Amino acid sequence: MNPALTLATARRILLQLRHDPRTVAMLIVVPSLLMVLLRFVFNSEAVFSRVAPALLGVFPFLIMFLITSITTLRERTTATLERLMTLPIGRMDLLFGYALAFGSIAIVQVGVAAGVSLAWLGLDIAGSIGMLLLIAVLDALLGMALGLFVSAFARTEFQAVQFMPLFVLPQILLCGLFVPRGEMGWLLNWLSNVMPLSYAVEALTRVTTSGTVDATLIRNLIIVGACALAALVLGAATLRRRTP
User: Fold this and answer.
1) Is the pLDDT of residue 229 over 80?
2) Where are the bilayer-spanning segments (predicted)?
3) Does any domain span residue 244?
């Protein structure tokens, strides 16, 4: 992997997004608007503080999955990837360039949503704000990596969206957001244990309720980061120049 080519790819993606201010505004503003909506739906700071940390990870995960899967597919169907891969640039350079570009957006996205939640919506956390942001950004990167991976198996943007019920919704339903994982049946509990979003939500919950950085929290961070990296590597292995 060539760092210069990776940075060039990231710069190209960011320049393209700069010319699409509507998409950038939606990427940054939508998670914050959803947090505001949920605050008034619950109408209780105590309930909101219990649920909001997990949602700070779920919303960026979902949005980045959709954006990256569709964006990557569009570049392949318009032959942009085919032209790029005729240059001396590797697949890992392309994928990590995407990761760097969308990761930068994810940092802003999560930072704005967390800032709104902490300063205006009454979110109360016992741990470090920096750790909360780190975990939420890892969630966004995980969604982005999975989006890059599944885009290799879609031929149209509609098919890319259809992967969401397969790769995203089961993780949201089984991550412990609605029902504690320990109260699930053995099969659902086993499935939740092999889904990376479960560890991200658990880490966010720990940061909210405790200011201690323990071995379990570190383990959860490593699992989420490793899953994101594995998805990027698999995405590079399955990356095709164009859609047949």
Assistant:
1) yes
2) 21-42, 54-73, 94-123, 129-153, 160-179, 217-239
3) no
